[in-house]
Amino acid sequence: MASRRFLPLAGAACAGFFAFAANSGLAQTLYKLIDRNGKVTYSQEAPKDFDGKVIRIDIDPNRNSATLGVPPPTPPGAQPPEAAPEAAKRVAQARERLAAARKALAEAREHPAEDETRFVGKVGGGARSIPTEAYQERLAGLERAVKEAEDELAKAQEGK
To answer: CB within 8 A of 131, min separation 6: which ones?
Structure first.
């Protein structure tokens, strides 16, 4: 039971030590030791007579090459930072067009005009509404507009 309370403290101490060691350039290689019971221990030196699993961990303190105040180079094919506001503006406009196209399509589906449907009698009585050809063409046009707006948004997001 005491070991369960000790584990979080030991883990925090190990993490702190390794962070200090990595930042100060002290540690280049660590060893992760896993005994038969699954207990994990870390060491800076290779064990001599250890009958569990040993995993070597190489640490490169120079791997983090972050620099402050210097923008990273622009990858090939990407837009330079000056173009970013214009690209963001195009994406926003494309999103607005897509939202408007979707809204128009939903509105047309929910509320067709009086002349866009006609009622046909059923065999057992009553009537059912069927769409006219003009209404179907209008819906097809609105669906095309949504598709075009989706394509335009995708291109804007890719930066093309």
So the answer is: 112, 116, 117, 139
At 136, list the tokens. 């179907």
CA–CA distance, 108 with 138 (Å, rounded to integer): 8
Residue 45 to residue 47: CA distance in whole angstroms? 6
CB 87 within 8 A of CB 95: no
- Give the helix, strand, coil percentages of the chain, each rounded to 5: 50, 15, 30
- Coil, strand, or helix at residue 51? coil
What is the Cα–Cα distance from 75 to 37, expressed in whole angstroms? 48
Between 67 and 140, whose confidence is greater?
Answer: 140
SS (H, E, C) 78-142: CCCHHHHHHHHHHHHHHHHHHHHHHHHHHHHHHCCCHHHEEEEECCCCCEEEEECHHHHHHHHHH
pLDDT level of residue 128 (50, 70, 90 thresholds): confident
